[in-house]
Amino acid sequence: MQTIGECAFYGCINLESITIPSGSELKTIGDYAFYHCSSLTSITIPSEVTEIKDNAFDGCSKLTSITFQSGSELQTIGSYAFYHCINLESITIPSEVTEIKDNAFDGCLKLASINIPEGVTKIGDSVFEGCSNLGTIRFECKPTNEMIDNLKLPKTTGNFILSYNFSNDDEQTDTCNYLKGKYPGWNIEVLNPVQT
Predict the structure, then answer these.
(1) What are phi and psi of 173, to 5 degrees?
(2) Computed from CA positions of residues 125, 56, 140, 157, in that sequence, does the dihedral angle turn out positive or negative?
(3) How confident is the model at residue 195, as a pLDDT?
(4) Which helix (H) or strand (E) holds 181?
(5) What does the alpha-carbon distance between residue 44 and residue 70 come to, in Å, rounded to a whole number?
(6) What's the CA gap between 81 and 32, in Å, rounded?
(7) pLDDT given for residue 173 in this prediction
(8) Which residues contact 191 (CB under 8 A, 6 or more apart)?
(9) Whole-Å CA distances, 102 to 55, 99, 105, 123
(10) 64-74 residue pLDDT tens
(11) 159 three-class SS
(12) Contact present, 46 and 67 (Cβ < 8 Å)
């Protein structure tokens, strides 16, 4: 099986857990696959999965953690994929991810921190809108102006940690200034400052 199909477990309100065997051929978790599985508390995503499609875990209100197996090949997190997962406390986005689509984590009220991997080149609109507890974001990728615009962070204070290796001082300064302009109450820590 390469795909968990669209609406496969739609509205299975008594589903508490699911085990997808490692070494499976699963590549895609389809649109609305686990929509409103309101008793689901955790899930482990096999390393072979490359795409989590739109609204896949939308409304999984008891989901507290998502684990990606080592060597994850995940590349895309779909729009509203984890929308209103109000008890989601932690998620480590795999390093192969390149795109996080619109509103992917919108309404994840307990999510406190997140790392954006080095390979991410696109962040969709309102990706963290409604994440009222999110106060630490680490960028391993270069945060472009469009990415920063699309964060839509509700908190007025927090910490940006930049571990990206900027190519020159101007690039570093421009990024920090843009972040500060959008989120004046947030601290900015540059882990690998350009040496001048």
Answers:
(1) -65, -40
(2) positive
(3) 78
(4) helix 169-182
(5) 11
(6) 8
(7) 96
(8) 161, 162, 163
(9) 11, 10, 8, 7
(10) 989 999 999 99
(11) strand
(12) no
* Residue among 24, 125, 35 nearest 72 (CA): 24
Give how far the C-alpha of residue 165 lies from the chain's centroid of Cα atoms, to the nearest Å: 21
In this structure, the dihedral spanned by the alpha carbons of residues 136, 63, 38 and 153, taken in order and rounded to 10 degrees, is 10
The Cα–Cα gap between 167 and 75 comes to: 25
Residue ranges of the chain whose pLDDT lies below 50:
none
Q: Which residue has the tokens 């469009």?
A: 146
Backbone φ and ψ of 161, nearest 5°: -115, 120
> What is the 8-class DSSP label of residue 115?
E
Q: What is the pLDDT of residue 196?
A: 64
Q: 10 Å Cβ neighbour count for 131?
A: 24
Q: What is the DSSP string of 43-106?
A: EEE-TT--EE-TTTTTT-TT--EEEE-TT----EE-TTTTTT-TT--EE---TT--EE-TTTTT
Q: Residue 145 corresponds to which tokens in the numbers above?
A: 């102006």
Rounded to whole angstroms, the Cα distance separating 189 from 128 reads 20
pLDDT at 51: 98
Closest CA to 53 of 34, 23, 78: 78
Give Cβ neighbours of residue 174 (< 8 Å, ≥ 6 apart). Answer: none
Residue 174: phi and psi, rounded to 5, are -60, -40
